[in-house]
Prior knowledge:
The protein is α+β, with helices and mostly antiparallel strands. It contains nine helices and 17 strands. It has helices spanning 3-16, 56-62, 69-73, 92-105, 147-157, 173-178, 253-270, 305-308, 326-333, and strands at residues 28-34, 44-52, 82-83, 108-113, 116-121, 129-137, 162-167, 184-190, 209-212, 218-224, 235-242, 245-251, 283-286, 293-296, 301-302, 347-349, 352-353. The chain is globular, with a radius of gyration of 23 Å. Iron/sulfur cluster (SF4) binds at residues 278, 280, 282-283, 296, 298-299, 303, 308-309, 313, 315-316.
Amino acid sequence: MSEFAFELALCAHLERSSTPPIADSNPLVARQIGGSVADPGGRILDIVCVEPGLEFDARTAITDAEIPDAAIESAVGPGRSRYWKDAFDCHPNHARRAMERACEIGFFESERRNGREYVRQVARYPDWYDRIVAIENKPDLGRPGDLEMQLRTDVSLALVDEVILATESYVSRAHLHRLPDPVGVWRVHRDRDRSGGDPSAPERESSGKVETEAGVGVEIEVVREPTPLPTAGPGIEPLAFEPGRTEIEPVSAAEKARARRRLAERAYGKGWRTYDFPGCASCVPTDEAAATLPYCAWAGDFVDANADCGPDCPGYESAAAPEVDLDGERDRRTAWRASPSGHRRQQSGLDQFR
Ligand code: SF4
């Protein structure tokens, strides 16, 4: 199975799982989210599960989009309006982009006074997220790529509360020994691959805990539970691994806290339904996993329209791309809310709101 198909199947499963990776919560699921603190840092987390915090409802009421970090960090508060240039401590271009975007999505409201733009927050920024779990997908452990380096980075940095490796491969003791101890390991089984088990696989060494969701088609076999990481303290971000030498960047606790907020915001705004449907007759949108996914009858799996599809594909047959409302689906099936009415007040005069 391609990593893309694996990732979509797992996201769909996690979204409706009754035993999510964060116990007793209904986590927000997102995919392909930046997981670095250093700038530039190249770590991209495959799947992120964010546990809603106490003030989650207040966050959903503000906007359905990611709120720019510079806008949250600025001195623009929910009290009196301030001249926007006095409220940002970053490059003016970056500040202007953040201010305009914050106004556009409804986190700021603005008014003009004497030819100057004054802004204020529509509401206090809420404390809306709690634990964050990152899942690294590697369906085939025979082709690990940078897996060890990626997981060592996540553990050393400790930006997220738990890290889990998800794979379809049999996980041997040798595999486990190569992974950092805190990393949890899941073996993922999909219905279409379940034909009486894998006779070549040695006996499972796992805890034997297997999660099954009727109708979803995915089982998660927990091979090893993750160990919580020390997110509240400082961390070390490895930037490059070379023989005998690792380039690192120390990261303070405050920098990590801000990066966690960026990560949670990105996950809230983006989610995981960020795929397209190809204009090909072989693509049949399927909701077998309780989410509408780009299933290709010719390939027999979910396909990445931008990477897999086009006239060069032997199974390609031109057709209109299916019309699918993925935001509407996310709104119906998760705690994320599309287009909330927001808190923006009507401006009644040049210097007043009502
Ligand atoms: S272009 Fe190929 S992979 Fe894509 S939907 Fe059509 S047949 Fe499937």
